[in-house]
Write a structure and sequence with these properties.
311 residues, alpha+beta, 6-stranded mixed β-sheet, 5-stranded mixed β-sheet, 15 strands, 31% helix, globular
Length: 311
C-alpha cells in the first residue's frame, strides 16, 4: 500500500511536517488552532495574528493538497494505512473511491461495513458489509471506515499481523467501540504492548459544541478534561478515545492523534457534517415573516475513508 513512510500522496514530507502530533501538518495545511496544539489561551491570543499569517504563507507552498495523510506511529512500524482528505473526493462516490484506492492500496481487497454508531466489531469481508462500527483484518485484506466528523481509529499489532479500523462518534465513544475492537484483536492473538493506534482527522473541541446533558455524560465517564467551555460545552472526542486506549494499557508512545479539525480546517481540507449543516442552516433559515415555511433538509456532507491493512 502506498502512503506509508514519510510521503503523502507522493510528496516527500520534511521532518517538521511529520512529527508525532502532526502539528506541523496542521499548521502547514490548515492554519493554527491553538486549542489543538496545546497553547495556553493567553499565549495564543498574543501570537495568533503572526501565527495565522505564517501558516497562510506556508499553506500556499503546497499544491495540490495531499489526497491522504499518514501517522508516524503506524508508518514506522511498517503498517500500510491512509486517511483520505477532501482532495481525494467524496469516498461515498464509487468512482472517487476506486481511484483513490488504486493509488493507496493497488490490488488489495477492501472491507467496509454499514456503520450504525454502535459498538459491534466483526472480521472484515470484502464481499459483505455487515452492520458494525469496527472491522478486524488479517494479512491480505484492508479494512476501512467512513467519517465526516467522527473519529477514525486505526489499530495494528505488526508482529501478529492483525489490524482494525474503528468508527467512533459520540455514541460509539460512549459505547466504547475502541475497547471492543482492542479486545477482539487480543482474543485473536494481538498483544496490548505491541498495539499501535492512530486517531485520524475528526471534529475537535474548537468546533464540537454539545448539550449540557451530553457534556455531563462524558465528564462522568472520562473526566472533566474532555469538556471545555467557551462558555457553552465543547467535547473532545479524541481525548475520550485516548483515555479508553490508555485504560486498556496501550502505551502513550504508541498512540497518535492527527492534529486537524474536520470542521474548521482551511480549504476546506475535509468533509464535515457539522460544517455543512451549519452552512445549510444559515443559508436556508427563513426570515421572521416566513417562519411558517417548512425548513429544508441540511446539505449532505461527503465522507473521508480511513483504511489499514496488517503489515
Amino acid at each position: 500500500m502506498a502512503g506509508v513512510g514519510s510521503t503523502v500522496a507522493g510528496v516527500e514530507l520534511s521532518p517538521g511536517l511529520h512529527d508525532q502530533s502532526l502539528a506541523g501538518v496542521d499548521q502547514f495545511l490548515f492554519g493554527v488552532d491553538q486549542s489543538l496544539l496545546g497553547v495556553e489561551p493567553s499565549a495564543a491570543a498574543a501570537g495568533a495574528a503572526v501565527a495565522a499569517s505564517q501558516a497562510r504563507r506556508r499553506c500556499s507552498r503546497l499544491s495540490p493538497m495531499p489526497r491522504w495523510l499518514t501517522a508516524r506511529v503506524l508508518a514506522e512500524a511498517g503498517v500500510p494505512h491512509a486517511f483520505s482528505t477532501a482532495e481525494a473526493g467524496d469516498m461515498k462516490d464509487p468512482a472517487a473511491r476506486a481511484a483513490w484506492l488504486a493509488a493507496v492500496a493497488p490490488g488489495l481487497p477492501l472491507a467496509t461495513a454499514k456503520q450504525v454508531h454502535g459498538a459491534r466489531a466483526v472480521w472484515g469481508d470484502a464481499a459483505a458489509a455487515p452492520e458494525a462500527d469496527a472491522l478486524l483484518a488479517r494479512r491480505g485484506l484492508a479494512v476501512g471506515v467512513f467519517t465526516a466528523d467522527c473519529v477514525p481509529i486505526l489499530l495494528a499489532d505488526p508482529a501478529a499481523g492483525l489490524a482494525a479500523a474503528v468508527h467512533a462518534g459520540w455514541r460509539g465513544t460512549i459505547a466504547e467501540t475502541a475497547v471492543t475492537a482492542v479486545r477482539a484483536l487480543v482474543e485473536a492473538g494481538a498483544r496490548v504492548a505491541e498495539l499501535r493506534a492512530a486517531l485520524g482527522p475528526h471534529i475537535r473541541p474548537c468546533c464540537y459544541e454539545v448539550s449540557e446533558e451530553l457534556a455531563a455524560r462524558f465528564a462522568a465517564r472520562f473526566g472533566r478534561a474532555v469538556v471545555t467551555r467557551t462558555p457553552t460545552p465543547h467535547l473532545d472526542l479524541g481525548a475520550a478515545n485516548r483515555a479508553l486506549l490508555a485504560e486498556l494499557g496501550l502505551a502513550a508512545a504508541h498512540v497518535e492523534t492527527l492534529a486537524a479539525c474536520t470542521a474548521c480546517a482551511r480549504a476546506p481540507a475535509f468533509f464535515s457534517y457539522r460544517r455543512e449543516k451549519e452552512l445549510s442552516d444559515r443559508m436556508l433559515r427563513p426570515p421572521a415573516s416566513a417562519s411558517a415555511r417548512r425548513p429544508a433538509e441540511p446539505a449532505s456532507s461527503g465522507r473521508q475513508l480511513s483504511i489499514i491493512a496488517p503489515a
